[in-house]
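The protein record filed below.
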Amino acid sequence: MNMELFTAFLLITLVLVLTPGPIVTLVISTGATQGVRAALTTVAGTTLGNVLLLTAIAFGLSWVLVHALVLFEVLRWGGAAYLVWLGVQAWRHAGKSGPGLAPSGRVHFTRGVLVALSNPKTIVFFTAFLPQFIDPNLPAGPQLAAMCIASALLAMVTDSSWAIASGLGRAWFMKPARAKLLGRLSGTALIGGGIWLSLARRPS
């Protein structure tokens, strides 16, 4: 492993995962409305989604490069529609409580996987940057594996931090006078994330 290239890759990836996007929006919204456990379950789902997407990109890079434009458009619109749908649901149930309205852990996990898989930021970034950090004098497979594992771990740690922070602030918002406002703010953030995703453009 070329440590100079790998260190540069880690620094750029850290900037990427710290930049708010669909995953961070979903995690914060879930933590603020459902608590730390639900948010961390969502992070487990986003982590699996990231691993699957990164693995597909890394080991199918030539195919991804050829079909990058089509993939970007499909993921962009699919992800945008899903985030808007989640936002509408948050608006509809804002301020309501009851066992029938609390999603199960499986639902949070599935949402995390779907949002991670439909995040075009990931496919665009890693399709463009992975080849630049591969040392041609070393076997490509181990380098790709190390970068994928490191990226998934960085995303998991930062997303978990968002989950815990938003979940710890939930108690203040869960008073009846504030719960409805929080639900609508979360819904607005998710819908806004969907609109932002629909307006995203693939870098040339």
